[in-house]
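ok trying again, last paste got cut off:
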Amino acid sequence: MSTLWTPDGERPIRRGGEQPAAAPAPEPAAPSDAELEAELAEVRDQLARTPAEVVVANHAYGLWQLAALHLSLEAPQLDQARTAIDAFAALVEGMQGRLGEAEGQLVGALEQLRLAYVEIARAGQAPPAGG
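nice, full thing came through this time. structure:
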């Protein structure tokens, strides 16, 4: 019987085209507590070096994405979208002048979301065609 080398080791090759099932890949070793602590410390250091306005803007973009998701569903979830839009607006309008370079984009994104919400809400209230 012939064998074939694979990253998981030697595998026998059967004649007649039938191949043995590959052995499952070994589970990767779980990181140790020390490795996890070191990784967490690095993430904390990186976050501490990042200006707070950048982190806040990133969270605002997440709220924008959440609102857009609820508006884009085949059956839009207007209540959920409104909650996300209101939270997004609270950040953008409540932090006016403090969001750095992203502020202009965030203000524009808020306007776009509000317009989309109104258009979608109106479309859902339109009477059926021909009736």
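cool. DSSP finds four helices and two strands in the chain. The beta strands are 2-6, 9-13.
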